[in-house]
Amino acid sequence: MANFLSDQIATRARSLDFSFNGLLLPNPDPILRARGQNIRVYRDMRVDGHLGGCLRRRKSAVKSLQWGLNRGNAPARVAKSIGSLLADLPMDQIIAEAMDAPLYGYQPMEVMWQARGAMWVPADVVGKPPEWFGFDSDNRLRFKSRDNQTLGELLPDYKFLLPRQDATYDNPYGFADLSMCFWPIVFKKGGMRFWLSFVEKFGSAFALGKLPRTATPQHRDEMLDALEELIQNGVATIPDDGSVDLVEMAGKSASADLYERLVMFCRSEVSIALTGTNQTTEANSNKASATAGLEVANDLRDGDAEIVTAAVNTLIKWVVEKNWASAEAPVWEMWDQEAKDKLQATRDKSNYDAGAKFTNAYWIRAYGYQEDDLVPESSSTPPAAVPTPAVSFAEAPQAGSDPTPVTALGNQLAREAGGAWTKVLDHIRQLADQAQTLEDLDAALLAAFADLPADELRTVMQTGYQVAELAGRFDVKEG
Question: Are 258 and 251 in contact (CB under 8 A)?
Answer without folding.
Answer: no
